[in-house]
Specification:
The chain is of the alpha/beta class and 223 residues long. It folds into 2 domains: 142 residues, Roll (CBS-domain), CATH 3.10.580; 62 residues, Histidine-containing Protein, Chain: A, CATH 3.30.1340. Strand 1 and strand 2 form a beta hairpin. The longest helix has 12 residues. The model has no long low-confidence stretch (mean pLDDT 88).
């Protein structure tokens, strides 16, 4: 699936000239933790999230900078002051946010969310916002995914398992032999750790047509 297949297209958005108070109210009313910010032409110019707001001066007893801010250079400290003190969304937002193209794979979207620690990614076309993919959209994609119902014989199952063993599983360097009889997978090889044994079993179980998995791994050597 692609981003365009799972994205939300009816996106609540902000203007850079909205106030931070307006933005907070919109987030609460729509039960979202972040919103894209677009200019008058619909071009994405930033994102405002809860993370941008939790260090606002309204939440502090004074207007003191954090220890991290005090360690910054003069210009950077001034910029941090503006972000936590200005009433305008355009000043408080995160500029140059992570974005994706509508044809980006769902796996790439999930990987970016994990790597950047973010909950949503705007989808753009020629710089214009056309949708947004959130973690909730990815959960919906999991529910909507249909299992592979292609009929598979024993040899097709074996080839599929062998191929997947060479992918990003942690098992690539292990010499695992695979045989399949009447849909039952038999695994041989020197696989000493419990995590690798479990990964091999789950990898085989996830192949369509597998009726069971039998492990023939030798007992791990004593430590």
């Amino acid at each position: 699936m692609r981003a365009k297949d799972v994205m939300t297209v009816q996106v609540v958005r902000l203007s850079p000239d909205n106030s931070v108070r307006q933005a907070a109210r919109i987030m609460l009313d729509h039960h979202v933790s972040g919103l894209p910010v677009v200019d008058d032409e619909g071009r994405l110019v930033g994102v405002l999230s809860e993370g941008d707001l939790i260090r606002r001066t309204e939440l502090c007893s004074g207007m003191a900078a954090s220890p991290e801010d005090r360690a910054l250079a003069t210009d950077a400290r001034a910029s941090a002051y503006v972000r936590r003190s200005s009433w305008r969304v355009g000043d408080a937002m995160t500029v140059d946010p992570v974005t994706i193209d509508e044809d980006a794979s769902v796996s790439r979207v999930a990987r970016l969310m994990q790597e950047r620690g973010i909950k949503r990614i705007p989808v753009t076309r020629d710089g214009h916002l056309i949708g947004i993919v959130s973690r909730a959209d990815l959960l919906q994609a999991i529910l909507a995914a249909k299992p592979d119902e292609t009929l598979a014989d024993d040899e097709a199952i074996r080839r599929c398992i062998v191929t997947r063993l060479g992918e990003n599983t942690g098992l690539e360097s292990l010499d695992i032999t695979v045989a399949v009889t009447d849909g039952v997978v038999h695994l041989w090889g020197v696989v000493e750790t419990a995590d690798c044994r479990r990964a091999a079993r789950i990898l085989a179980e996830n192949v369509h047509g597998v009726r069971g998995v039998v492990e023939h791994f030798p007992n791990p050597s004593p430590q």
